[in-house]
């Protein structure tokens, strides 16, 4: 197999152009992207992605949960491809780069190999994983979680959004309930490029994050049952106020997570009063909780401390609080050989870099449980993500895509002419 000189680089303007071209699918007036999974906007970008991959000579197929795979043939088709890619769905207040950079950089890698007339020894395969964000349907990283066997396809197809639409109905509504059973597409290994979604690389002036680990995640669905009563005539001492209860839970989660310093985080991201009215004391509230740590022991402490706090708050508030664990993703330790390959490609290209832990969850965190996986980070402006202000720079995105290109070339090998 021949080596490829690092002067083979991606087409920076073309990558930057595709990032901004696809941002129109769900583009918001504030310059963000609202492209919830399996929405009309998600269909638009999926259709765009399919035709772009087919135009680049890939065979595209879709699994029964809508994850898309674009296969570029290699010399030796007897071996599973090297995987690359990410996700194209966004948060409601999403930006142009989260998931999009990794998926479109993967397409750019294929386009660059085509331009250079390079045939890889192993095939390569771009993935667009369904519902990485977990905003419309839980859990997050849903398509890859089913792919690695954490959930059955039937279980996932029945998951419903807040409007009561199931994953199956949403897939059918956009025509992306594919033919191939989940797990059909095999990979030798997987590499994902992503923005850091945190402040470290930018603060340290580093171009590349060589991701060696990722936080573990616990998600809970909560239900508070107090007692609706008149806002004017109910004495403060007799109230069973669900919203005041939730307020105490929010502050308890903040106190407990902060107690572990930078090693833990906790968030209540959703809260819905069942029958809101300005002159009725809230009686029923549904909420969600997200707690994380890169340390499995701390994650376990967090869970126990939060559950104890909820019991205590429910008691003195004289309300019922139910907390159901709906997702547990243990901390990730990425494959050492692959992490070293990312680092070697970064050094060969001369980019500044550092090892880093991912605060956010990613599809590669799931994939790493059944195959070697690794990630490449680039900075994002002020570390902001899951916000319409999310931004990055063309040089940084180009650097990340070049590291992806050369890591994939190392893993797939270049077929001799
Ligand atoms: O929740 C996460 O970390 C990811 O953005 N889905
Ligand atoms: Mn993401
Ligand atoms: Mn995200």
Strand content: 15-25%
**Architecture (CATH level 2) name of the largest domain:** 3-Layer(aba) Sandwich
Q: If you average the pLDDT, what whole number results?
A: 97
How many H/I helical runs?
12
N-to-C SSE string, H for helix and E for strand: HHEEEHEHHHEHEEHEEHEEHEHEH
Briefly, what is this?
The protein has twelve helices and 13 strands. 51% of the residues are buried.
Description of the structure:
This protein has helices at residues 12-22, 40-55, 100-116, 142-147, 153-158, 167-174, 200-204, 242-258, 296-317, 336-349, 363-367, 394-412; strands at residues 59-62, 68-72, 82-86, 124-128, 189-195, 208-214, 216-225, 265-273, 284-293, 320-329, 332-333, 353-358, 373-378. By secondary structure, the protein is of the alpha/beta class. It has 2 domains: 12-214 and 331-412, Zn peptidases (Aminopeptidase), CATH 3.40.630.10; 216-329, Alpha-Beta Plaits, CATH 3.30.70.360. The strands form 2 sheets. Strands 1, 2, 3, 4, 5, 6, 11, 12 and 13 form a 9-stranded mixed sheet that branches. Helix 3 links the parallel strand 3 (82-86) and strand 4 (124-128). Helix 1 packs across helix 12 (394-412) and helix 10 (336-349) packs across helix 12. One manganese (II) ion (MN) binds at residues 87, 98-99, 132, 194, 362.
